[in-house]
Write a structure and sequence with these properties.
By secondary structure, the protein is α/β, with parallel strands linked by helices. The chain contains 17 helices and 13 strands. Bound molecules: pyridoxal-5'-phosphate (PLP) and zinc ion (ZN).
Length: about 450
Amino acid sequence: MNSAHFRCFSGCPAAFSVDRAISQCPTCGGLLEVVHDTAALKKRSADEWTRLFDERLGSPTADCRSGVWSAREWVMPHVRDEMIVSTDEGRSSLYRARRLGREVGIDDLRIKQCGTSHTGSFKDLGMTVLVSVVRQAMSDGAISPRPLACASTGDTSAALAAYGAAAGLPVVVLLPRGLISTAQLVQPLANGATVFALDADFDGCMKVIQELADREAIYLANSKNPLRIEGQKTVAIEMTQQLGWEPPDWVIIPSGNLGNAAAIYAGFKMMLDLGVILKMPRLCIAQAANANPMYRAFVAGDAEVAPIAAIKSLASAIQIGRPVSATRAMVALREMNGVVEEATEQELADACARADRTGLYTCPHTGVALACAFKLRARGVIHESDRVVVVSTAHGLKFTEFKLGYHESNLGKVESPLANRPIAVAANADAIAEKIARIGA
Ligand SMILES: *Cc1c(COP(=O)(O)O)cnc(C)c1O
Ligand SMILES: [Zn+2]
């Protein structure tokens, strides 16, 4: 059977077991990555792999209907069945947004609905892998008992709290006080996590959690930990499978810490290495203009991402100025002939409202990605005939304050040209009929 291990992303020679509680390279302190045994995986042909994955999709009574674990040989082969902590994550819709696509001149515009998931964001995909690996490693005595912990802009903590609770493992989360939505705050509380609200932004919370990890007081569950990326990369695999094992032309992803961008690349790279696809899609990393260190590096042609102080953004989950996975994302950008685009607060809010008018219900981060897609199309970088996948990272229902604020024209400097408000009227059919008659007039 094939196996996977940790290796230094910067090329230090040693390899480490994924069952060790390390969050960075012991030699250089840099990022780790998970490396798979490609030679062993190549013993199956591309056709055999795609047939196997298609078969697993087909069985409604399977014990585990997870989109992540149905690609388990490519994700984390050593996890035993009974150790898997799953909520049947993944298998999200690749919704064809026909009306929106027509409006903006993209024939085949798809929304990968990662927000329709157990805790309402794509973070479930990485967390099922991390929690399963840790549960097995603790049960085997490879990792001594300690809480799983993360710093979070909201969705990571929701996912960690849910999977930790499902496994019966203690969870600690550090949140930036006042910077996440009510729904996101309630989630870890409801799942019984110990929640600390810090007077800091996300980058400040990240610094503290790293210190706690260095003291071995906690096991680090942030996406600095490459186990998360292994689960998240199944988004690339799933969308390709949903397109009949053809990659799209473009993937557009809202990015903050840049782990998910790295994961998308890892998924496509694996398919390319195994001959399942023959070309890479192009990548667009979409950032909020208020938190755009990757965009700045791209525009300046810099190979390194210089940290900035992120400004408050409606896209709170990507309000990150010091992205942990910047070097990973740089490789993704290069290998996928990628671009970085940004969206202002006004642009992201309007993109959400516009998309919602066509039947979607978008979170602000998805709004960032959509706004960037519209801009790239308007500039002719994306062509009308391109097949474009916008990754929707969270469910709009987690962001009611944002939605309501827009429609009540109550988002500060952001205007609400597409606001829609309830109309107060007497409980009287004549009065209502008169108003209905004026709709569209
Ligand atoms: C975490 C998150 C992102 C950003 O992912 P990164 O890996 O940090 O770039 C985008 N959108 C939502 C809703 C998220 O929760
Ligand atoms: Zn190293």
